[in-house]
Specification:
- With about 240 residues, the protein is α+β, with helices and mostly antiparallel strands.
- It has helices spanning about 5, 25-35, 60-70, 75-85, 90-100, 110-115, 120-130, 135-145, 160-170, 205-220; strands at about 15-20, 40-50, 185-190, 195.
- It is built from ten helices and four strands, in the order H-E-H-E-H-H-H-H-H-H-H-E-E-H.
- The longest helix has 16 residues, at about 205-220.
- It is globular and about 45 Å long.
- It comes from Streptomyces sp. CMC78.
- This is DSBA oxidoreductase.
- InterPro entries: Rv2466c-like, Thioredoxin-like_sf.
Length: about 240
């Protein structure tokens, strides 16, 4: 692809992001890509995936089981919207739902600070208590995007999990076995999907474009496999 900064306008490069609305890290990556698309020639599409339906196992504690029961709800609505209203409905609906989770005053605002230092069981209890309120969040998002209110019922329906598995399996992998990975996952120009980039906050303007340039150069390089920080992740600032 020709660099538009030196050779004029080019066709935008297709970028696909796999998302789950409850993930703050994915929301930050989405905001960055959305911003990068305003300063670089890229076209962003969004697809649903979620690992809640893959993580079930016997013998889970009560709160973990409750969390896994509730966690797939919002992303199931994305799957239902895609099935009934086309793939183009997913991005706008994702943005409306995720914003209500992670923006200032949202359902998950301050969650990472709230659960820091808690046991895994206590963290799941806090998350489950918030997810019990997610139905109203999703209903508001559906109304904002002009989608049927009845789609909110998809939150409690496991019938959409097969659609989510199919979306997950659509991540490009060049014939290799697909790891059980989280989100965000990004594919550039149909290349093998990569987990990340995981960002603490979403850069704006030319900073977003410069980050895109570096990221895109890495994923276009066949020799590139993985890049990972050696220190613990800081608390994300998705509301910023």
């Amino acid at each position: 692809m020709t660099d538009d900064r030196t050779h004029g306008v080019t066709d935008p490069e297709e970028v696909t992001l796999w998302v789950d609305p409850v993930c703050a890290w994915t929301w930050i990556t989405y905001k960055w890509l959305r911003e990068a698309a305003s300063v670089r020639p890229l076209s962003l599409s969004v697809r649903p995936t979620g690992l809640g339906y893959l993580e079930g196992a016997p013998g889970l504690d009560k709160e973990h089981a409750r969390f896994l029961e509730l966690a797939p709800g919002p992303v199931r609505v994305l799957a239902a919207a895609a099935a009934g209203h086309g793939a183009q409905s997913v991005g706008p609906l994702y943005e409306a739902v995720a914003r209500r989770f992670h923006a200032s005053g949202g359902l998950y605002d301050g969650l990472h600070e709230r659960v820091r230092g808690l046991s895994a069981e206590a963290k799941r209890e806090v998350q489950a208590s918030l997810l019990e309120q997610a139905r109203d969040v999703v209903a508001e998002a559906l109304d904002e995007r002009g989608l049927p209110a009845g789609l909110v019922a998809s939150m409690g329906s496991a019938e959409w999990d097969e659609d989510l598995r199919t979306a997950h399996e659509s991540i490009p992998r060049d014939g290799a076995e697909l790891d059980v990975i989280g989100v965000p996952v990004v594919s550039v120009g149909g290349r093998v999907g990569v987990f990340g980039p995981v960002l603490r906050s979403a850069p704006a303007g030319e900073r977003a474009g410069a980050l895109w340039d570096g990221f895109a150069a890495l994923v276009r390089e066949d020799a590139f496999l993985e890049l990972r920080r050696v220190t613990p992740r800081p608390v994300p600032t998705p509301a910023g």
